[in-house]
Design goal:
Blueprint (H helix, E strand, L loop, with lengths): L3 E11 L3 E8 L3 E7 L19 E6 L4 E9 L8 H17 L7 H13 L3 H18 L19 E5 L4 E4 L7 E2 H8 L9 H16 L5 H15 L3
Parallel strand pairs: 3-5
Antiparallel strand pairs: 1-2, 1-4, 2-3, 4-5, 6-7, 6-8
Helix pairs in contact: 1-3, 1-6, 2-3, 3-5
């Protein structure tokens, strides 16, 4: 096979000198593969197979577990630290948890690459993360549809709750948290970068992803909560 662009999502030690790797590839989506000998001291590929680093790979195998053959770095990885690093781990964890094996996701691959370019910059981080999340939801046929339960346009003056089972919105009670229809209208038009919509976009994506993730908490979300707690307490 020809070399294929890829990113490592996660790896763990396997036997004495190898690793099990979850990998996002351009044409074959997520694959799971064994990287033989990659944990051996002095292995030249050990430092290439790192998260957030653009790779070119080949592999062999017909089943769900492949064997990596060639691992080439295509340049330095994204320099991530603190909140940017946790956001990168979050994106990787989402794909490892939610993407079926071998489902082509070329558009998601492109948005993931764009996300890695944006994460080092706080002012670009939120919009890029929301665009990545909505693209992931679209790949899984779980993206919000900005209509009401009867497939009618939302009332511009209305307030709504999101129903993930229908992927649509229903009118909210007069009291309590709800999405403003005007904000939803901007998101429907693809405005995921507006700072004024950041809170609405974050809550909506979280509600849309929740049924797919189930009750098991994301490890990256726990890390972000811990980072926020330390910042509040003044202990980094």
């Amino acid at each position: 096979m020809e070399l294929q662009p890829a990113y490592l999502l996660h790896r763990q030690a396997w036997r004495e000198t190898s690793a099990l790797a979850d990998i996002l590839t351009l044409h074959d989506g997520r694959i799971r593969a064994v990287a033989r000998g990659v944990m051996r001291p002095g292995s030249r590929t050990r430092h290439r197979l790192q998260p957030f680093t653009p790779l070119h790979l080949t592999w062999q195998g017909e089943g769900d577990l492949k064997t990596l053959r060639v691992i080439e770095s295509q340049g330095p990885g994204a320099m991530l630290a603190g909140e940017g690093l946790i956001c990168g781990l979050y994106a990787n964890e989402l794909m490892s948890r939610l993407l079926p094996l071998s489902m082509p996701v070329e558009t998601l691959f492109a948005f993931y690459a764009a996300l890695l370019e944006a994460l080092p910059f706080p002012e670009r981080r939120s919009g890029a993360l929301r665009r990545f999340e909505i693209t992931l939801l679209e790949a899984l046929d779980s993206e919000p549809v900005f209509l009401d339960e009867q497939d009618r346009p939302l009332d511009r003056e209305g307030r709504y709750l999101y129903d993930p089972s229908l992927k649509r919105f229903r009118p909210a009670p007069a009291e309590g948290p709800a999405f403003e229809a005007r904000a939803l209208g901007w998101l429907a038009r693809g405005d995921w970068d507006s700072s004024g919509l950041a809170g609405t976009a974050r809550v909506l994506m979280r509600q849309a992803l929740a049924p797919l993730l189930g009750s098991r908490e994301l490890r990256s979300r726990e890390l972000m909560n811990e980072l926020m707690r330390r910042r509040r307490n003044g202990t980094r």
